[in-house]
Write a structure and sequence with these properties.
Elements (H helix, E strand, L loop, with lengths): L1 H7 L4 H4 L3 H12 L11 H4 L12 H20 L2 H11 L6 H7 L3 H7 L10 H21 L2 H29 L9
Helix pairs in contact: 6-8, 6-10, 8-9, 8-10
Length: 185
């Protein structure tokens, strides 16, 4: 009896997936053009004048988008940097190799970042993006090869990414509910 109760309470990745609302919110935030709603003068450039449904956006639509961006950004700033970084890796759009993306889904950016050598991590963003691209190609080759050792490496990185993604989603969900964590954690 005890073991069946334990087995039914075991978490799966499906339990750790973001809610639809959180997923849509983070997709919207990280795909916002230029990601900079801080300047009122940029509204016209930041948010297209016409919505996906063909309706014209009003100045009020732009203000709501700026407010939404500000709220989400504040939530991300309220959680530990490592968790915000994991969410950025998961949600920021990147041109990952298709097969790698199919294999890893939302975890692709996290797995790519985990595969880097932290000792040689470049300080400038352009260097980071270039290194991510190299790591993604290396991982893609490993997935394509399908060799047992390569599969073990990728699966190990995936498990680590799942844990980090779940922790980051938990932190963000708490921040969304108004229970911010300390950034020092």
């Amino acid at each position: 009896m005890k073991s069946s109760r334990h087995a039914s309470s075991a978490l799966t990745l499906a339990h750790l997936a973001p809610s639809q609302a959180v997923d849509e919110e983070l997709v919207w935030f990280f795909t916002a053009e230029d990601g900079d709603f801080a300047s009122v003068s940029n509204f016209g450039r930041m948010l297209p004048s016409v919505a996906e449904d063909g309706e014209w956006r009003t100045p009020e639509d732009h203000m709501r988008a700026a407010q939404r961006h500000h709220v989400i950004r504040a939530r991300l700033k309220s959680i530990p940097d490592r968790d915000a970084g994991v969410l950025q890796c998961a949600y920021a759009p990147r041109p990952w190799p298709v097969r790698l993306r199919k294999e890893l889904g939302r975890l692709t950016g996290i797995v790519v970042r985990l595969s880097c050598d932290r000792k040689t991590w470049p300080g400038e963003r352009a260097g980071q993006l270039a290194l991510d691209e190299q790591n993604a190609e290396r991982l893609h080759a490993m997935v394509r090869a399908g060799e047992p050792e390569s599969r073990r490496v990728v699966q190990g990185l995936r498990r680590d990414a799942e844990v980090r993604f779940a922790r980051a989603l938990g932190a963000y969900t708490l921040a969304r509910r108004g229970r911010a964590l300390s950034r020092a954690q």
